[in-house]
Model the fold of this input.
Amino acid sequence: MFDVTQNPFVYGEVVPAAAFVDRVAELERLVGDLAAAQKVFLISPRRYGKSSLIRRALAVMTRRGALTVEVTVSSFSSYVAFLEGYARALVAAEATGGRARTWLREVIGSARAEVRYAPGESGPGAVFVSFPGVRSDRDISRLAVDVFALPGRLAEARRRKVVVALDEFQAIGGFNGGSVEHAMRAAVQHQRDVGYVFAGSEPSLMERMLGPKRPFYKAGPVMRLEKIPADEFVAFIDARFARSGMRPEPGLGAAIVELAGNLPYDVQRLAHETWDEVRGRGRRRAALDDLHQALKRLLTEQQMMFEAVWQRLTLAQRAVLRAVVLEDDGGLLSADVRTRHRLGGPSTVQAALAALVRGDLIARDADRYTVVDSLLREWVARRTF
Ligand SMILES: Nc1ncnc2c1ncn2[C@@H]1O[C@H](COP(=O)(O)OP(=O)(O)O)[C@@H](O)[C@H]1O
Ligand SMILES: [Mg+2]
Done:
């Protein structure tokens, strides 16, 4: 059936099943590990598809009868706020309303929990948990021990498997440094009916967290999520254009994946915007020219943001960023490249590269640097000098 009303490409949110590509082996492995109550670490740069993969794995586990809980650690502004949000997510999995309150009272001995229940206008309402009495670091540490024990209590009380996903887990480091890691590790290792997935978007932080002297050392299997194989992504794009009633010009899918640097988010974004371009012109053929129009429009929309990024960079960083964009072979430290782009000495180049990596603008991909955001890469290539 042709459906030209609905864009089949999705970006900026967890992908729904219909726009989910590949990850067959990864999904199977993650589900298997979670079913075995392992503590899994899932690592990749942002926008590779961790949250989307987790969502699918949790859906499978829910179908198999597990209780699942998902919390994004980076969305909280303090340690206590995180503990409140985490407790709330767990309570919501346990029950609604009055039962939740009783349950939380029983299991949290260290702090008086306030549980509010706001009935929804339609369907189930929302539970709110707060710990107003918790002030000192000692209070917080005690509370953390109780909250981190909740998943195990939940599994016991309900006689069900529990799966907990803590997304953007690297943000835990901002709360209380080592003590959070310690408390979390101590709690989870005894929970034999609870599978955990700790997902992190800053690979270097996450790898350090798993190092020999840290609490999570050897706590569980580590999955490093790679990009989706380009040929599968290309086939998916061409097929979805066709299925939505647009005939893709040969090579369109490949051009999109290439231009997007095969970053899943960027691939879906370019495909989505190209599809809109074709539909906006009321045509049935999706051409390379539509892709270029979409790219031009996106660059214009992002112009202000890219200018702001550019202005925050030092001159040395700007020159190095341009060299990363313009040099394919990656030999940024060679005398030849440094002279051509007026980069200065090797140590200047290295310092600039390090700053750009820290700012998440470039990343090391195998043995060379690439610009993380493919639109920024195109903008730098076209609009800077
Ligand atoms: N398996 C997938 N198939 C197709 N697109 C994907 C897939 N995983 C991620 N994406 C694309 O990447 C975007 C970011 O995915 P997300 O799961 O939020 O990444 P992360 O959690 O690693 O930052 C999604 O909105 C979607 O456009
Ligand atoms: Mg995510």
